[in-house]
User: Fold this.
Amino acid sequence: MKLYFDPISVNCRKVVAGFGLMGVNYETAHVDYFKAEQKATEYMKINPNGAIPALVDGDMKLWESNAILQYAADKNEAFAYYPRDLKLRADINRWLLWEAAHWFPSCYIYLVENVVKPLLKAEPDRAVTDRKHRTGIDWRTSSTSASPNSAGSAETRSRWPTSPLRHRCICIPTRSSRSTRIRILNAG
Assistant:
């Protein structure tokens, strides 16, 4: 398996951290995000969306970080992290979909304005970060009615980041002896 990634990307870091957690063997190919190499013709043959990360395994090309993690877990029989039990897997998939649909998009604006722009020597746009994003997240508190702080077990709630300053953390659903929970790993 070959992972096309740039460690500057939070979704790439999530995959690398997940691979490390699961003991996945893989090769890497650096795709420079700041040089827009993900938009190059050759890379677009791997991922026509022009986004990173992407995984190539033989003749299969796979993109989307959560799909890559699910595939790697199954291929490497990492069932401690992505169990075969249908109900547990459905619970994990729910959180993976929530992360992709709600958590990441809401954090993306914060990351661009407060991490990417300073790296590029550009000024953050405070008009963007000082208002609520369309998902309902208040950047000052990172509160949302869809967060695990309002649902789930106490174990899950106690591990969930409550501040946008936790942007360097990644969420990997794992299984305890009684329930599924979100495991927070520092990615940086």
About this structure: Helices lie at 10-22, 41-44, 65-75, 86-119, 126-129, 154-159. DSSP finds six helices and six strands in the chain. Residues 3 and 55 are 5 Å apart (CA to CA). The radius of gyration is 17 Å.
